[in-house]
Design goal:
- The complex is a heterodimer of chains A (219) and B (221).
- Chain A has 2 domains: 91 residues, Nitrile hydratase, beta subunit (Cyclin A, domain 1, Orthogonal Bundle), CATH 1.10.472; 82 residues, SH3 type barrels (Roll), CATH 2.30.30.50.
- Helix content of chain A is 30%, strand content 16%.
- Chain A contains 8 helices and 5 strands, in the order ααααααββαβαββ.
- The longest helix of chain A has 15 residues.
- Chain A is globular and about 60 Å long.
- Chain B has 2 domains: 43 residues, no CATH class; 160 residues, Nitrile Hydratase, Chain A (Alpha-Beta Complex).
- In chain B, the strands form 2 sheets. Chain B has a two-stranded parallel ribbon. Chain B has a two-stranded parallel sheet with strand order 2-3.
- In chain B, α3 packs across α4.
- The N terminus of chain B is likely disordered.
- The chains are: A alpha+beta (219), B mainly alpha (221).
- At the A-B interface, α1, α2, α4, α5 and α6 of A face α1, α2, α7, α8 and α9 of B.
- β4 of chain A pairs parallel with β3 of chain B.
Chain lengths: 219, 221
């Protein structure tokens, strides 16, 4: 969706706030929000794509005025409600009013290291040949899907060149909505800065974006 | 409990001040606490697992991992080649695997070419080698400008590259995660891998800094 999360190339946000010796967490609630998000992710109720979509579906004003762990917290609440794991009333009151729904698994402390070390690879077996090869000129499609997508607005309509064929990866646009993984070829595509931003762009700039085959046309 | 609000929680990393900081912070604190109570009560999460998740990223997974990888790439040409060819496997040689590092790519700075990593769409970051991202990496000023005006961004980090340097910006739009291999500083020919790792900062592996010089290290100690 063309939401507030799609920030590449926007202007007016001011200087970068750099904090020396920054801690991982600035407050205990951030630690808990982080861990709750990961632990609920580990129940296997939703995909990482669905969780990204829940965060970027926040109202743009809310998204841009929330800190990152606030965004995570709000996204988590959305996911819990959507999955029927909690009710609005339970969220409001902070206590259980209804029996729990079964989840695939509950992360135990002893399993944390193993689960993190394993991760969740998204590469899938090759089912069809890649449409593009390294060196091919490609066009990032003009598109504005209402659902989740990982093609940033700033490259849509721009021409680039395939520089890497990463393999076949889960397609986030359908996976986020529960329509399935639909694995697709993923390419590293390089764009000249001037082809994205215009002639006054730094001539030495190139932008490298990972794009799935459904996002691309042959140029 | 009242401690929570005092502990630097104001540092939310976005540029505009809230007019009601205190009550808003209290709101989010209460909200997260309520959420944890509820999810624990319903049996979806185990508080000890939450503690373990936090502990892991506070103490075991962080930029020291990435620094070891870079220092080895600087000292061992075969390792450097493996890292550039298949970063996921080369990084796994150290035992750094898994979450948010499942598909790694290493990009190397060379004289005349500088690499910088961003996630314009969210906060994708190579956790296995760098740990959790700093607030600025996840915030609109960096995410918006990194792809459009990386030189301006670098200037704010105090980095000035020689004129004519090519800048490659990597936008982490998929599950591929990027690690920048900074250039090895001059005057370190005789340094061991462990000594070199001390020159490799988090920001130098994101590409918003260069590796430290030996003189910087003396200054820091």
């Amino acid at each position: 969706m063309n939401g507030a999360q799609d920030l590449g190339g926007q202007m007016g946000f001011g200087p970068i706030e750099i904090e020396e010796n920054e801690p991982n967490f600035h407050s205990p609630w951030e630690e808990r929000a982080f861990a709750l998000t990961l632990a609920m992710g580990a129940t296997g109720t939703w995909s990482i794509d669905a969780s990204r979509f829940a965060r970027e579906s926040l109202h743009p004003v809310d998204y841009l005025s929330s800190s990152y762990y606030e965004i995570w917290t709000k996204g988590l609440e959305t996911l819990l409600l959507q999955a029927g794991l909690v009710s609005e009333g339970e969220l409001a009151g902070g206590q259980a009013l209804e029996p729990a729904k079964p989840v695939k698994r509950v992360l135990a402390a002893g399993d944390v290291a193993g689960v993190l070390a394993k991760g969740a690879p998204v590469d899938r077996p090759v089912a069809a040949p890649a449409r593009f090869a390294v060196g091919d000129a490609v066009l990032a499609k003009r598109m504005s899907p209402a659902g989740h997508t990982r093609i940033p607005r700033y490259v849509r309509g721009c021409q680039g060149v395939v520089e890497t064929v990463h393999g076949v990866h889960v397609f986030p646009d359908t996976n986020a909505s529960g329509e399935g993984e639909n694995p697709a070829w993923l390419y590293g595509v390089v764009f000249r800065g001037a082809d994205v931003w215009g002639a006054d762009c730094d001539p030495g700039l190139s932008v490298h974006v990972d794009l799935w085959e459904p996002y691309l046309d042959r140029a | 409990m009242a401690e929570d609000g005092r502990n630097g929680g104001n540092n939310s990393g976005h540029g505009h001040a809230h007019t009601h900081d205190h009550s808003e912070l209290s709101d989010i604190e209460l909200r997260v606490r309520a959420l944890e109570t509820l999810l624990t009560e319903k049996g979806y999460v185990e508080p000890a697992a939450l503690d373990e998740l936090i502990e892991t990223y506070e103490t075991r997974i962080g930029p020291k991992n990435g620094a070891k990888v870079v220092a080895r790439a600087w000292t061992d040409p075969d390792y450097r080649q493996r890292l550039l060819t298949d970063a996921t496997a080369a990084i796994a040689e150290f035992g750094f695997t898994g979450r948010q590092g499942e598909h790694m790519v290493a990009v190397e700075n060379t004289p005349g070419t500088h690499n910088m990593v961003v996630c314009t769409l969210c906060s994708c970051y190579p956790w296995t080698v760098l740990g959790l991202p700093p607030v600025w990496y996840k915030s609109p000023p960096y995410r918006s400008r990194a792809v459009h005006d990386p030189k301006g961004v670098l200037a704010e980090f105090g980095v000035r590259l020689p004129d004519g340097t090519r800048i490659k910006v990597w936008d982490s739009t998929a599950e591929v995660r990027y690690l920048v291999i900074p250039e090895r500083p001059e005057g370190t020919d005789t340094w061991s891998e462990a000594q070199l790792a001390k020159l490799v900062t988090r920001d130098s592996m994101i590409g918003t800094a260069l590796a430290l010089n030996p003189a910087d290290l003396e200054g820091a100690v």
